[in-house]
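sorry for the late reply, my laptop died twice this morning and i had to redo everyting from scratch. anyway the thing you sent over, i finally got around to it. pasting the sequence first so we're on the same page, its 150 residues, then the predicted structure underneath. double check i copied it right bc i was rushing
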Amino acid sequence: MVAKTRLIEGVFYALSAVGTLILVTLSGQLVAGASAHAPADLVRDLRDSAGTVGVLAFCAGATLYYLIFYRSQLIPRWLSVWGLVGTALCLTAGLLVFFQSIAALSSTQAALSLPIAVQEMVLAVWLIVKGFSTKAKAKAPTAAAELHPA
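ok and here's the structure:
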């Protein structure tokens, strides 16, 4: 399930990037004097919507990751909880943008997304420096044995 949300996230981010490239082409047509306001607005809305759906897919996948981290105790619980709170705030921001309550890339969206952005960087440093918990690794074989008794 997590891999599928990452795939969906990537597809919509790519669609958002393509929308940006199309906007560059349309802006060249506007400079040349062509009437491209309506198509440009449509592509901009497509880009913003695709980016928002990508953020929502990221939040879904990240929530699953942090739930797994919380239950398995592979990382400290405070770091997992921080991730869960951050994804909830990011999801809130994404839904507010999706339903046009706030503007895409607004300061409100940035403020709501900041906790998960910082947490993701802290998690990366944590995993590089400390790695996964040795207690959780030691418990893993017994947990697998409970799921699939011989």
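The mean pLDDT is 83.
thats about all i looked at so far, will dig more tmrw
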